[in-house]
Write a structure and sequence with these properties.
It contains three helices and no strands. By secondary structure, it is mainly α. The chain is rod-shaped.
């Protein structure tokens, strides 16, 4: 690997080299920061859950699940409305 700064002879050349190094560093910092934010956003719990739901939702029958819930609620409501035999206590 060659030293790209070995040919610097004057102060102006040194200042220009320092400015170019700082500019490259800022550019790299911006890229690394953007990558880190992307990884952070990808692994947020809300994104993980939404990704899971999007991936596995086609496997579920939401109509069937909704109907099962409605039927279960209907049975509970109908069962609580009926008088129960043999449990009536008279004093």
């Amino acid at each position: 690997m060659s030293n790209q700064y070995a040919s610097i002879k004057t102060g102006k050349e040194l200042e220009a080299a320092i400015k170019s190094v700082r500019a490259r560093r800022r550019k790299l910092e911006t890229g690394i920061t953007a990558d880190a934010k992307g990884v952070w956003n990808h692994y947020k719990p809300s994104n993980l859950v939404s990704g899971f739901v999007q991936q596995y939702t086609p496997l579920f029958s939401w109509t069937g699940i909704g109907l099962a819930i409605v039927r279960g609620l209907k049975k509970r409501i109908a069962a609580s409305a009926k008088p129960q035999k043999g449990k009536l206590k008279i004093k």
